[in-house]
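Fig. S4 source data, part A: sequence.
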Amino acid sequence: MRKIDTSKAHYVGLDQRIAPRSDVYCRLPFVMPDGRQEMCTCVNISADGMLMRFERGLEIGDLVVFRMPIIGRTAAKVVWSLGGKTGVQFEKSISVEDYLPMIRAMGARGDVN
């Protein structure tokens, strides 16, 4: 068994994505757990979750609700938050039919066939 030195930062097992991500750069409004409305920047997204920039950070387990292009309100749970970046997992996966139009509306970079 491999022992991990817990006195130093490590990244073993952090990238546990269910699906590949699409690179985007999109400002999104969202509702904080306390009901306040805020803005974040979506950096990349998949049908199951996304990486967002939000300087104030969030707590693991927080539930936030985004207003997404094409699909509207989408709830997500914070799975990690560090240094102004936060990873969230959507409560419900985005359907195949909606995903491509949504990421195009978000300004997806690269090949999005």
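Fig. S4 source data, part B ends here. Helices lie at 96-105.
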